[in-house]
Amino acid sequence: MNVYFISGLCTSCHIFDGIRLPQPYQKIYLEWIEPQRNEPLHDYIARLTKPIDTTKPFAIVGLSFGGMIAMELNKTLKPVDTIIVSSCPTYKHVPLLYRLSGSLRMYNLVTKAMINNLRPMVDWFIGAKRSKEEMIALHKTMEQLSENLLIWSIAQVTRWRNTVVPKKYFHIHGDADRLLPVGKMKPDVLIHGGSHFMIVSHDKEISDAIAKRLNASI
After folding, report:
1. 208 phi, psi to nearest 5 deg
2. Residue 200 near residue 16, CB atoms below 8 Å
3. Cα 73 to chain center, whole Å?
4. DSSP E strands: which ranges in the chain?
5. Is 183 exposed, middle or buried (0-12, 13-18, 19+ CB in 10 A)?
6. Smallest Cα–Cα separation from 63: which of 25, 135, 17, 13?
């Protein structure tokens, strides 16, 4: 069965390289594409997910903003399962400060240079503490993506208004996530010590949780 992966805000799907799935599951990455001018989220998702083969059973794994994309995708396609990691099932779980900034359109003030200048703070928020090599690789994946995509993505996260919770979805979250604190969310799996970077730092635990869930879904 194909398992499609969507990464977090402005990061390459190579951040999933440490996730291991057993046979017969096949990992397929859905890499970010460039948004068109003023493109609505549902139109973007339609283009992003064109590679999905809907003629056979498939599952979706979404990380952070990719998890929000996965929740939206669940409304139009019929995946066997939707798995979100370090993400939010509805907009009410997005921190209020982010939602307020979206209402005020503060994302228009963001630039890629600003993000680069605030890199130590960004790293602290996502909880990135791994080796120097891994941090260089993470930063490289972010640097390869455009400022247009960055600003558009921040706008979508802060203005997201989903209230629909599918009957079948699976949520994995970390109890040390600073960027999207677990708060009142009730994830199916809570990773102890898991930050927003736990897809790398706790890749084995997350691999096991995803594999167990997929095996229960088929």
Report:
1. -65, -40
2. no
3. 13
4. 2-6, 26-29, 58-63, 81-85, 170-174, 189-191
5. exposed
6. 13
Give yes or no for a contact between 63 and 86, defined as CB atoms under 8 angstroms apart.
yes
For the record, the structure tokens of 39 come out as 């493109």
CATH of segment(s) 2-217 = 3.40.50.1820
User: Do the Cβ atoms of 196 and 139 come closer than 8 Å?
Assistant: no
pLDDT, one tens digit per residue, over 104-163 is: 989 888 877 777 766 777 777 777 766 666 666 566 666 667 888 889 999 999 999 999
pLDDT tens profile 3-12: 999 999 878 8
For 26-64, letters b (16+ CB in 10 Å) and e give: eeeebebeebeeeeebeebbeebbeebeeeeebbbbbbb
Handedness of CA 51, 159, 34, 13 (dihedral sign): negative
What pTM did the predictor assign? 0.92
Omega within 30 of 0 (cis) for the link into 166: no
Q: What does the alpha-carbon distance between residue 181 and residue 190 come to, in Å, rounded to a whole number?
A: 12
For residues 91 and 70, is the Cβ–Cβ distance under 8 A? Answer: no
The tokens for 169 are 């979805």
**Nearest Cα to Cα of residue 199 among 113, 120, 137, 110:** 137
Three-state DSSP at 124 gives helix
Helix (H, G, I), strand (E, B) or coil at 184: coil
Which residue's entry shows tokens 């019929």? 78
